[in-house]
């Protein structure tokens, strides 16, 4: 009983200073793994050091901090639940002990017994939003946490600046607004949006992948992810350029077929457009073939 009281008192003291308690291997084994324990512990296994280049870890940590702060400063806060973090560079032995080779990972260690399969948060399927983590914790511990987020006015300010900029431009050009009816301009703007979305920019915004991957053993840099379940930022840029080149080829083919200019010039335009489509579409297929193994391209 004295040992349990000392452990709870120490965790409460650390939590009063910081909502998420940082742990190394020794602290993890003493306060999380070793009995006696009458409290639940949520552990985030991560790799936050810059050399690890884990942007997902940083984003997940921000959500984790929001959740831990919501619990720490709520009226329901008690010594039944603690939030901790184990960084790979501070507790590599813990990762080895748990046979863990990926980060970030969230685990719940119950007051009694060993963690079950459901005590590992399904980050790949659910994501790492603080609200989703809170729901998972409620299912595992019956502790309900209401998430409070600090106000963020960056989106409102950016929208206000954009509206002001567009309004200012329209005011300056108020005597000549024919450019609004320019079909080519609207078509180019629509294509930019389409290229951005089809290349995976929204996935990058949600998941925050690294720009590329450098192999620490041989120094080789990979710009294309080898799995169909992930991508690098550089990969989305490559796909965007390939789609743009293919579209340009299709535009040139259409121009060659519909224009009434010189036949020789139209033939050159047709050959250039056909070359763009054939070459860059083949390149695009080769990328998909390298990611989707076994598909009969």
UniProtKB/TrEMBL annotation:
Pfam families found in the cross-reference section: OST3_OST6
PANTHER family: DOLICHYL-DIPHOSPHOOLIGOSACCHARIDE--PROTEIN GLYCOSYLTRANSFERASE-RELATED, TUMOR SUPPRESSOR CANDIDATE 3
Compartments, as annotated in UniProt: Endoplasmic reticulum membrane
Main localisation: endoplasmic reticulum
Pathway annotation: Protein modification; protein glycosylation
Protein family: Belongs to the OST3/OST6 family.
GO cellular component: oligosaccharyltransferase complex
Protein name: TUSC3 protein
One record GO biological process: protein N-linked glycosylation via asparagine
Membrane topology category: Multi-pass membrane protein
CDD domains: TRX_family
InterPro entries for the chain: OligosaccharylTrfase_OST3/OST6 (IPR021149), Thioredoxin-like_sf (IPR036249)
Highest taxon of source: Eukaryota
The keyword Transmembrane helix belongs to this UniProt entry's keyword annotation: yes
Residues passing through the membrane, by range: 153-172, 184-203, 238-256, 268-288
Keywords of this entry: Disulfide bond, Endoplasmic reticulum, Magnesium, Membrane, Signal, Transmembrane, Transmembrane helix, Transport
